[in-house]
Specification:
By secondary structure, the chain is an alpha/beta fold. The chain contains 18 helices and 21 strands. Helix 9 (about 270-285) packs across helix 10 and helix 12 (about 365-385) packs parallel to helix 13 (about 410-420). The longest helix is centred in the N-terminal third of the chain and has 32 residues, at about 110-140. The structure holds ligand C2E and calcium ion (2 copies). The site of ligand C2E has 22 residues, from strand 13, helix 12 and strand 17.
């Protein structure tokens, strides 16, 4: 009898421990400790095994598709002796079955009562804990299993306060041209790469930080500043293999980074988020590289962008965008053989050069409206020159790549040209090279369409970006504009790489039957290089900068430049 009482006391002592260990909320439960107690109680009642099943809903239970957890197992041949089922208000179901070895005597009524009590207490805890996990999963992870933005904000909130993010950095990054990976290797492979990318980044970040997906191929993270260098190297370039035939895919990212200064006060997560997004916006333009560190000047630049975008419509209406013309010159005769229309923003008497506003307008479709305005102005000028009986030359107009997705682009161009009654031979459209297959197809369609209308087309900035010989071979261009970065400087010898490339590009262009013009000719000896290589057209400061229309008209009337000054 004493042993019975003693055993009972022992049980209640353990049970009390179990009850208190499983009651604690708002703190990570001591799973190891709980398992320990359950082990002891199981041994006390000669149990050989305990199995718990968790079903998110009754349907899962019906099909027995739940999760199984085995908390205790002596690995002996056993029979089930008792099962408890627990249903939560959310209709999730947890069941627990305990087993005894086949040769053990069955539980007495009193023993069964105690076992049952233990099982119910444990089950309530397990189901609450599992529900918490599930709630967390839903709240902080997206459908593909990546941590989400809420998790990121949660992390910042946790860290909030002055100085708690000393020595840390936050990053907003996006994988470049990821759609090409999807197009080329398929979505499944794309997803796999995305996941591996995430895993590898998370590994670099380690335990002291967090990584979340904003959506698609955009991510945000927080890490210790001392792993930042490694992370940046990874973001700049990383390689992934996919499939059985092991394709090596190169991934690079654009990133905006904020290195949190010591003592920085975070009053809301926007203090971090806003800064990395600003830095990322700067990285996106690619103007100053693909990895940009936050600084106050970035905020200033962003504000400037916003201002320009806000002013644009009004300025366009007020006629603040003027068209300047830069002469194109025949290198043999010095005659003006054409002109390029270049836009200037004239506001309150000061002139803003295009590089300060075109990239900003390119972030939205505003650039398209500007380009059409320029084309319209050019057409009106040509019409007037014709009506005034002046000598007229072909004028080229720049079209942003943004137009390529406009399926009505051709119609839009022709409408402007026709409305101004301009003979098609006086119009040339300059387009830059393209990077993706999709754009390539659009480009091909547009150029062929213009060709049919006898409107000239030129490849602008050839050699600057992703030069592809395929681009010139497949698309029927009329003119190739060699970028000034290909033009050797005065101190370069004929055997410099650039000189060699320059000679070959000019020769190739001519051989393919295209007109060749070299941009950025600044010195007599550069002009000489053009002549030696039989390149017949030049454009550059040696002759003139882009000129206001009245100045350009004077040049047209007077005729020729001196091309023999060397
Ligand atoms: P781009 O199409 O390559 O135009 C040539 C640029 O080179 C012009 O700059 C011109 O002033 C400059 N340039 C000409 N000769 C020389 C030279 O000898 N030396 C040097 N260093 N530069 C020379 P600009 O007018 O500032 O235009 C810059 C860019 O802005 C243009 O580059 C073009 O990409 C864009 N842009 C200008 N107007 C328009 C427009 O109406 N629409 C679009 N979409 N883009 C435009
Ligand atoms: Ca151009
Ligand atoms: Ca150019």
């Amino acid at each position: 009898m004493t042993t019975d009482i003693q055993k009972s006391l022992e049980f209640f002592e353990l049970f009390e421990k179990l009850a208190s260990a499983t009651q604690i909320v708002n703190r990570k439960p001591d799973i190891k400790g709980i398992e320990d107690i359950l082990g002891k109680i199981s041994a006390m009642f000669r149990l050989s095994k305990g199995v718990t099943r968790f079903y998110k809903n009754p349907a899962e239970e019906e099909q027995d598709e739940g999760e199984t957890m085995i908390s205790y197992d002596l690995h002996v041949e056993s029979r089930p002796v008792h099962t408890v089922r627990f249903v939560t208000r959310l209709m999730s179901i947890t069941t627990m079955t305990v087993y005894m070895a086949v040769d053990e005597p069955p539980l007495t009524e009193d023993e069964l009562f105690k076992v049952d009590l233990t099982m119910r207490t444990t089950l309530a805890f397990i189901s609450r804990n599992r529900l918490q996990d599930i709630a967390e999963q839903l709240a902080f992870y997206d459908d593909s299993g990546f941590r989400n933005i809420r998790s990121f904000f949660n992390y910042i909130t946790w860290k909030k306060g002055s100085g708690t993010m000393d020595g840390m950095a936050a990053v907003n990054y996006n994988i470049r041209h990821f759609s090409i990976v999807n197009d080329e290797y398929g979505r499944t492979a794309g997803d796999t790469i995305l996941k591996s990318h995430y895993d590898r980044a998370a590994e670099i970040i380690g335990d002291n930080g967090t990584l979340s997906r904003l959506g698609g191929d955009s991510f945000v993270c927080i890490c210790k500043a001392d792993v930042l260098e490694k992370l940046v190297a990874f973001l700049k370039e990383s390689f992934f293999t996919i499939g059985t035939d092991i394709k090596n895919v190169r991934i690079s990212c654009r990133a905006g980074i904020f290195v949190v200064p010591d003592g920085f006060i975070i009053s809301s997560h926007n203090d971090i988020m806003g800064r990395i997004m600003h830095a990322y916006a700067a990285a996106k333009t690619g103007e100053h590289g693909h990895i940009i560190y936050y600084s106050d000047s970035i905020t200033a630049a962003i504000n400037k962008s916003k201002r320009i975008q806000q002013q644009f419509t009004e300025s366009l209406k007020n006629g603040e965008f003027a068209v300047y013309y830069q002469p194109k010159v025949n290198t043999l005769t010095g005659e003006i053989c054409g002109g390029e229309a270049l836009c200037r923003w004239i506001r309150n008497g000061s002139i803003t050069p295009p590089m300060e506003f075109i990239p900003i307008l390119e972030e939205t479709n505003d650039i398209c409206r500007l380009d059409f305005h320029v084309l319209d102005t050019v057409c009106r000028d040509i019409r007037r020159w014709l009506d005034e009986g002046r000598r007229v030359v072909r004028i080229s107009v720049n079209l942003s790549r943004r137009h390529m997705v406009n399926s009505l682009l051709l119609e839009n161009i022709m409408e402007i040209v026709e409305r101004n009654r301009v003979p098609h031979k006086y119009i040339e459209i300059e387009l830059t090279e393209t990077t993706t297959d999709v754009e390539f197809k659009d480009l091909q369609r547009v150029v062929c369409g213009l060709q049919k209308q006898d409107i000239y087309t030129s490849v602008d900035d050839f050699g600057m970006g992703y030069s592809s010989l395929n681009l010139i071979r497949v698309i029927p261009w009329n003119v190739l504009k060699v970028d000034r970065s290909f033009l050797p400087t005065d101190d370069e010898g004929a055997d410099s790489i650039r000189s060699i490339m320059f000679r070959h590009v000019v020769a190739m262009t001519k051989e393919m039957g295209l007109e060749c013009i070299v941009e950025g000719v600044e010195t007599p000896s550069q002009l000489k290089k053009l002549k030696i290589n039989s390149c017949e057209q030049a454009q550059g400061f040696l002759f003139d900068k882009p000129l206001p229309v009245k100045e350009f008209e004077k040049r047209l009337d007077s005729g020729r430049y001196n091309v023999d000054f060397f």
